[in-house]
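Dear support,

We are seeing what looks like truncated structure output for some complexes. This example has four components. We would appreciate it if you could run it in full and send us the complete token output so we can diff it against ours.
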Amino acid sequence: MSQAQPRLRIEPLDVGLGLRKQASDAIKRAIMDMDIYGRAGEIRLDERRLSEDLGVSRTPIREALSVLEQEGFVRSIPRRGIIVVRKTKREIVEMITVWAAIESMAARLAAGAATPADIAELTGLMDAFEEDPTGHLTEYSDANMEFHRAIIRLGGIGLMSTLTDSLFIHMRAVRAVTMTQDNRAQRSVGDHRAIIAALRAGDADRAGRLVRDHTMGLAAHVERHGDFLDGPNAGGVPATNETGGK
Amino acid sequence: MSQAQPRLRIEPLDVGLGLRKQASDAIKRAIMDMDIYGRAGEIRLDERRLSEDLGVSRTPIREALSVLEQEGFVRSIPRRGIIVVRKTKREIVEMITVWAAIESMAARLAAGAATPADIAELTGLMDAFEEDPTGHLTEYSDANMEFHRAIIRLGGIGLMSTLTDSLFIHMRAVRAVTMTQDNRAQRSVGDHRAIIAALRAGDADRAGRLVRDHTMGLAAHVERHGDFLDGPNAGGVPATNETGGK
DNA sequence: TTGACGGCTGTGGCATACAAAATACAAAAT
DNA sequence: ATTTTGTATTTTGTATGCCACAGCCGTCAA
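Here is the complete output from our reference environment:
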């Protein structure tokens, strides 16, 4: 009966306020913590199990899962259950492309509006890793993300930050891998410095182009080396029976 | 095994599969049909009233409202109820800017991949209005939207279509107004023709730039003349933070 | 007369109970 | 032995009831 079901480890949350949001956060955390691409087969989430693990009834669980579905973490198949989505390489590349489009525009806008203090913040993020980013890949990965988020923020369009944030969440699994390949970290620093220079010069065209090329380069890289995403069970969504048991 | 059977294909009989979606669609339709910007004061939605009107219980209504909240149509205030959101001018401008960013990138991608048939489809959308779009503003407004959606589709990034579609829904109220001002419809046709030419020439840079300038022009126009959005009750529901579903 | 406090009502949040559907298992027939 | 069908269990979808909190109104006191 209770086979090797990927039972998520989560802490029972205390009831108080915003029970639905707490539940969605907890489940989201649990999903991000588990290695989605390691396991094979579809990962199903059982409402009843979740409700008893979290100590709340199924109603807030369902609403939380509805939120997570909108955010692209799970997919609800009508009468069949809720499964954790596994982003395909194709989908990741699409997300990076959208990211490139948005950040490029943000850089254009930032080029005309960024203050010296803003520029200083950007340089500050890179300064710690100028010499040898390869040694501290984990830290640099964070600083890298923060750099891009900062540029988008400097664009002044809040919606851009909202959208890209929800894109970035799905790329946690990709970040670590891509960094270690191809000396990408080192080249990344160079690209970033060029972007900062363009922003400081107020050159919107150049800033937009550099950002676009930089991120599209990541897209091309994932396109080439991101086959681990489609991993063991390739293809897309199996339309019909795929029990996978035994 | 028994796969080659010419099994007759029957509609999956979507009744029952998605009472929640039916509810969300109905409520969404109702929201879009009413003139949100005409009325003053906050528009509250009562769960019990809705469930009574739609003939279903409150549970699917709540889930439908949860979906609508994620899509940005309504806003749930913890113990106060659910109100219909009114997009501010600022938010509309932000949405148009994001739209410009995405469609510009899509045009770049489309410039290298569009087939003559694709180009013909685009020209076909515009041909009917070349002479005098001012006479058939409603029809042209639809064709205009379809033109932009087609370009985004030609970019080949499905995520772009998904994102922009959800953006476009919120701009119905703006479409009609902006078209009638400033001879925008007529100039729109000219811009579109130039965009088609760039796509036909395979000039990614030019196509991307033209699309960006065209849409950013709309953003600037709304920025200038879109005060009716914040209209009667300026700042009716200001940034009270919280909720807002990410 | 005015302001504050307390009960009353209405609405949303959560839990639980019930029904329908799909899958898994088993048995029987070919 | 394999396939098919019937049954049972699991699991989702829906309904309803109860509870907590917010807003409102009336009354009482200063």
